[in-house]
Structure formats: C-alpha cells, structure tokens
C-alpha cells in the first residue's frame, strides 16, 4: 500500500539543497584578519599561504634504530668497525672513515660520508665488529634533508582550518605566529515568557530554555566567537533592543522560535521593522520554517523552535554559511549506504533526517537503526545518534533490510 502524503507538505516547499545553494550566494567571507600565537590557533583559518623557512627534514636522519655506514663498503668486507654513535639531539662528532659504521637511533643525524642505515634486527654485533646483512639498496632507511618540503616550499594554503596535524606541521617549521581570518561573531538569544533558566523550578506552562544551550554547543564546535544574550521577554521594545544590540556587535544574529506560521509573539513584527528578512518554508523534516535576511550589517538566521528542528536546520543551513563566512571551502558531507534494521514510517513530501545509530555487523557490513521516537521535541534522539538516516522527498515507508543513505555526524554534531 503506498504511503499517504505528508500532511505538512505543500507544492511550494523548497528542497533543502536548493535552499542552501541560494543562501550561500548571499553571504561572503569576513575580509579582515589578525595574528595569533600558534598555541591559540586550533580551529582558526589561515588567511594567507604559508611557506617553510627551513628544509623538512632539516638534516639527513635515520628512519630506524640501527647502524649507519657507507653502502659501498659492504662489498668484499666481512664486517665494519664501530667507531661511535648518533642519538637524537646528540649527533656523531667524529669523521666517518672507510669500512666503519656508527650506532644510530631513529631521528638522529646521519653524518656526511654515510649513506645507508640497516635496522638493528638485521645486524650482528661482536664488540666493535659489526656484521650487516646486505640492505636492499643504497640510501635505505635514510630520510634526506628537504625530501618532504624544501625551504620556501608551500606548507599550508590560505583557507586551511588548523587542526591537530596542522598545529604539528606549523611547529615543525617553527611558525610561532600566524595570520588567520578573524573569527566570525554570532550573537544568539531566546525569546519567550515561558522559558526558565536551568536550575530553577518550573511553574505551570513553563519550560527550560534548552535550545540556547544546544546552540551554544553547536557554535562552539563551529569555531566561531559566540555572544550569548540570554532570554528576551515577549516585549516589543525588549526584542527590538536585543536585535539592534546583536546586529551592532555580530556578523550573524541567530535565534530559535518565532518563525512559524501563527506564532503569537512579536519577533516577526520587529524583524520586519528592523531588517530585511524572508520567511522560508522548506521541504525538510524535522523543521520547515526558517528565516533568513539582514539586520543592519549582520546576517540573520531564524531557526524553528522545536529542539531537534533547531539542530537539524543549523546543521543543514547555518553551518555551511558559517564555513563560507570563515573562508573555508565548501565540501559535500560524507554519505554512504547502510542496511536498515527495522521498519521506518515516512510520508512522501519532505526530506527527512531521522536520527540513527550506524554500526557494522559480524560481516563488516554497514547497518543502521533509528534511535527510537523521532518527534521534533525529542532531543534525546540527537544525543543517542551518531548519524542521520536521510530519506528522500519522494520516499515513503521503508522496510527492514532496505539499503538507505546515512550521513555520519560531522565535527559540529559529534
């Protein structure tokens, strides 16, 4: 039996892929930069290409613990004479001679005059006589100066986000200070007289302000500078003041709630008076209402109020915008196929991002199950999940064993 149509679906709903393409055309990277210390550079974005001021490695060194020698000396010699050693930080200070070798440790300098290293497992030592099983080739186990990067060679390019590996690379070339893109500033707040701070008791009809904490976590993962403006009462002038203050101090103003049809609050009214904001209806579930526009010089994004809807629309729409504003290249998220465990209920009409747990079975095959209830108010469905199960707009009910598209959570959601 075919699935019934999604009761919230309408012909005018915009596909989320179309929406993000349109949104990306309307934002630009921040155009100013700053210099930071390497120790504070994690997560920042390089604002210029970076070249190495030294060769990498800076000297010939050993890739193994073993013995360094001249390869040609092995021909016709039963053994080599041990004349010293080279340790990391303590190089051999003598002069290499014919038919000799030195003990050498991984990373230690290979003296000029020696060209090959044999691992210690293939060497027999009898006092100062060293018997070496012939290595495969001249130059074996030697890492040559500049073989990775030569002085002046490009190490990282503008637009690279600095992670743990990049931190190490920068330290390797001695880069103590870096020019990076200024962090994008995002101001966010919640509105509603029903919202109460955590740690207080709830009166009838009140709820805790959870969305603001989820948004704070998402923004922290997105490596932006966030400004938490708290909860704003349902008062026109208080909301107006909040929007003006936020837009004067941030590159983006982000709110949750107040963008649905029929919302009984002042948010839409003040947005219409203070900025240029369009209210979108998207073919996405959870979600659908989304607002985008400008407040002064700031970008405005209004997320749905339901907790899961707020997180999903942030992931799908806001995070790519923040990436572009930071100067990061756009990339398609990783998606793969997995076998569905259990049956899924879905109405055609909207793209669904159901929360799933991706794993592999005893045969190493990818399989996925959903986290349970998928209501847009069930925030535990996000906490339990490690991926989205993406069901296309036309797709209906999906049976156990079907191959479905899954998208593992990115660094923002992990």
TrEMBL record:
Could you say which enzyme class this protein belongs to? Answer: transferase
What's one GO-annotated cellular component? cytosol
Q: What Pfam families does UniProt report for this protein, alphabetically?
A: MoCF_biosynth, MoeA_C, MoeA_N
Catalysed reactions, as listed in the record: adenylyl-molybdopterin + molybdate = Mo-molybdopterin + AMP + H(+)
Which pathway does the record list? Cofactor biosynthesis; molybdopterin biosynthesis
- Annotated MoaB/Mog domain ranges read 187-324
Taxonomically, the superkingdom here is Bacteria
CDD domains annotated for this entry? MoeA (cd00887)
Q: Which UniProt keywords apply?
A: Magnesium, Metal-binding, Molybdenum, Molybdenum cofactor biosynthesis, Transferase
Which InterPro entries does the entry link to? MoaB/Mog-like_dom_sf, MoaB/Mog_dom, MoCF_biosynth_CS, MoeA-like, MoeA_C_domain_IV, MoeA_C_domain_IV_sf, MoeA_linker/N, MoeA_linker/N_sf
A single Gene Ontology biological process assigned to it is: Mo-molybdopterin cofactor biosynthetic process
SMART domains associated with the record: MoCF_biosynth (SM00852)
MF (Gene Ontology):
metal ion binding; molybdopterin molybdotransferase activity
Give the EC number(s) listed in the UniProt record.
Answer: 2.10.1.1
NCBIfam families linked to this entry: Glp_gephyrin, molyb_syn, PRK10680.1
Q: What function does this protein fulfil?
A: Catalyzes the insertion of molybdate into adenylated molybdopterin with the concomitant release of AMP.
What family does the database annotate? Belongs to the MoeA family.
Q: What is this protein called?
A: Molybdopterin molybdenumtransferase
Q: Which organism is it from?
A: Shewanella canadensis
């Amino acid at each position: 039996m075919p699935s019934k149509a999604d009761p919230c679906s309408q012909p005018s709903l915009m596909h989320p892929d179309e929406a993000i393409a349109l949104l990306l055309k309307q934002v630009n990277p921040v155009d100013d930069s700053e210099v930071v210390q390497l120790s504070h550079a994690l997560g920042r974005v390089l604002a210029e290409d970076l070249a190495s001021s030294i060769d990498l490695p800076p000297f010939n060194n050993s890739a193994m613990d073993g013995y360094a020698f001249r390869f040609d000396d092995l021909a016709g010699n039963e053994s080599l004479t041990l004349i010293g050693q080279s340790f990391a930080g303590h190089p051999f200070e003598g002069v290499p001679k014919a038919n000799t070798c030195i003990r050498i440790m991984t990373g230690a300098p290979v003296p000029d005059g020696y060209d090959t290293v044999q691992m210690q497992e293939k060497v027999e030592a009898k006092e100062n006589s060293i018997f070496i099983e012939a290595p495969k080739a001249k130059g074996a186990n030697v890492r040559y100066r500049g073989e990775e990067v030569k002085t002046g060679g490009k190490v990282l390019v503008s637009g690279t986000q600095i992670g743990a590996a990049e931190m190490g690379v920068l330290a390797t070339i001695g880069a103590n200070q870096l020019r990076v893109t200024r962090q994008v500033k995002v101001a966010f707040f919640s509105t509603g007289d029903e919202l109460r701070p955590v740690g207080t008791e709830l009166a009838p009809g009140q709820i805790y302000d959870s969305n603001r904490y989820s948004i704070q976590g998402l923004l922290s993962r997105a490596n932006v500078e966030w400004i938490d403006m708290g909860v704003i009462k349902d008062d026109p002038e208080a909301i107006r003041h909040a929007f003006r203050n936020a837009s004067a101090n941030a590159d983006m103003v982000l709110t949750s709630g107040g963008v649905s049809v029929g919302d009984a609050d002042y948010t839409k009214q003040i947005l219409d008076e203070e900025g240029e904001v369009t209210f979108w209806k998207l073919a996405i579930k959870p979600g659908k209402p989304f607002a985008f526009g400008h407040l002064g010089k700031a970008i405005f994004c209004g997320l749905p109020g339901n907790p899961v809807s707020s997180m999903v629309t942030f992931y799908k729409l806001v995070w790519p915008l923040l990436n572009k504003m930071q100067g990061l290249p756009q990339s398609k998220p990783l998606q793969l196929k997995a076998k569905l465990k259990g049956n899924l209920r879905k109405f055609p009409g909207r793209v669904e991002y159901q929360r799933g747990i991706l794993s592999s079975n005893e045969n190493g095959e990818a399989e996925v199950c959903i986290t349970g209830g998928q209501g847009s108010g069930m925030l535990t469905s996000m906490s339990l999940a490690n991926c989205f199960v993406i069901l296309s707009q036309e797709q209906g009910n999906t049976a156990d064993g079907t191959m479905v598209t899954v998208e593992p959570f990115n660094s923002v959601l992990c």
